[in-house]
Amino acid sequence: MAMPKVLIIIVTWNKEEYVLNLLKSLQNIEYQRASMKIVVVDNASTDTTVESIKALYKDVTLLCNEENLGGTGGFNTGLKWASEQPAGSFDYLWLLDNDVVVNRYALIELVELLESTPDAAVAGSTMMQQDYPWRINEVGSFYNRNTGELVFNLHLTTIHPWKGRAVEEMLDTKCDLSHFIPDYHPSLDVDYVAAASLLIRSDVAAKAGLWLDCFIHFDDVEWCLRISEMGYRVLVSCRSLIWHMSAVVKVPTWVVYYDCRNALTVLKKYAKDKKNVARAVRRQLYKATFLKMIGRCELADLVLDAVDDYRKGRMGRKDDICLPPVKSHHQQLLSELPFMDPNIKKILVSWHVNLHATKIQEKLVKTVRERPDITIDFLTFPGGDAVYQFPGANMVAISMNRMLRMIQYYRLRGKYDLVIQSDYKRVLFLSWLDSKIMFLNNENYCLRSAPTFLEMLGFLKNSIFKRLFAGGSR
């Protein structure tokens, strides 16, 4: 018997290796080939993505945009193409991120879930992490209509029996995560499922219309909320699995703008109380203040731009984002890193920095061997045990008591030439030790200086207070 017809829509931009891995995993899924069609929307990639797909997957339909329209524009291109096909061509549309790989049973489990649940229009896969294949990224998500924040369901939950297994081993495994999670069922209702793997009835997709022009982020959130308000259920399956690179390793740069602007736009549309929108705007302004205080001035400016553009109703791609260049510590030689600067003789490392994940441990060890005049100190977690990541590490204990901790930070002022902070979890007071700050993530780093007291006063007066009193949720 013929299976329901599914159109698979993938959007890609300059991720040739990723999209080819995804297409490879799709060749092995448990579904009738005659009932599947794959469309790849290319957002004007400058690598050889298009040529490779043409050469390796001749049955894949390629839709090439003339410019990068983001995830939003890419999926809208695919949705428009689907709507132009003869009536009845497809029963379902399966939207996939280009940097996922899918379990062999991912599609059939989603189809069977919607086939057996007529009042549901959307079903999404459980998203696992590619870098830690036994760890859940999200089993769908919930949306806080008071704050506009997403609550990732079961985020970072570990499936202990899978520990140590590679993604490749898991792709052909038929599994039901509800067996590993107490009191869980094979599927559940959620507010939204990510378009990393989202199956929707084609007729409902046509009724719902195209995505809100977010460029990236929150577009799939708004679509799911819109479909829910049309009276349909949104489900997530514990039996349909995909693996996606975890967001924690993604570098927080220009994406900050879209996260802020789009979150405010979606909240304005779906908030329970419009006063919550004004509060959300204020929270973004407080965030900009924090970013300015720790020395990430360029990110603070992005948040301010996002608030301004939200109030003006500007959507789509922002073309004038200008950020200072970052440097890859993987590609740089030791001599090119700031550790070898003769003016830097004392380094302080935050407890949030993972020397192994950032792959910087070996270079720090070599620095100490080549420069006997340098000292590297490591802060302990406040009130916690020392985490040793470095041979011969000198640990600086930090108190759990907030007042004592402030005094300790004050006494550290002027004692260090360089402070290394995690770009994922920054500590405000470490940016005010009268030293250079190295913000380090798993891919690259940047060097910054904390603003002076007078600079902060000017920022508050000219950038924050002006916007705080600009009014409400506009």
The CATH top-level class label of the largest domain: Alpha Beta
Return the average pLDDT rounded to an integer.
93
SS strand fraction? 15-25%
CATH fold call of the largest domain: Spore Coat Polysaccharide Biosynthesis Protein SpsA, Chain A
Total number of distinct structural domains: 3
What is the annotated CATH architecture of the largest domain? Alpha-Beta Complex
Percent of residues in helices comes to 25-40%
Between the first and last Cα atoms, what is the distance in angstroms? Answer: 55 Å
| Number of distinct helices | 13
Largest sheet: 10 strands, mixed
Task: Kindly provide the radius of gyration, computed on alpha-carbon positions and rounded to a whole number of angstroms.
Answer: 24 Å
Number of strands: 18
The dominant shape is: globular
**SS-derived structural category:** alpha/beta
User: Which residues sit in consecutive blocks of at least 5 with pLDDT less than 50?
Assistant: none
Description:
The chain is about 30% helix and about 20% strand. By secondary structure, it is α/β, with parallel strands linked by helices. Strands 1, 2, 3, 4, 5, 6, 7, 10, 11 and 12 form a ten-stranded mixed beta sheet that branches. A six-stranded mixed beta sheet has the order 15-14-13-16-17-18, with no helix packed on it. It has a two-stranded antiparallel sheet with strand order 8-9. α11 (about 360-370) links the parallel β13 (about 345-350) and β14 (about 375-380). α9 (about 275-295) runs antiparallel to α13. The N and C termini lie far apart (about 55 Å). This is Glycosyltransferase 2-like domain-containing protein. Belongs to the glycosyltransferase 2 family.
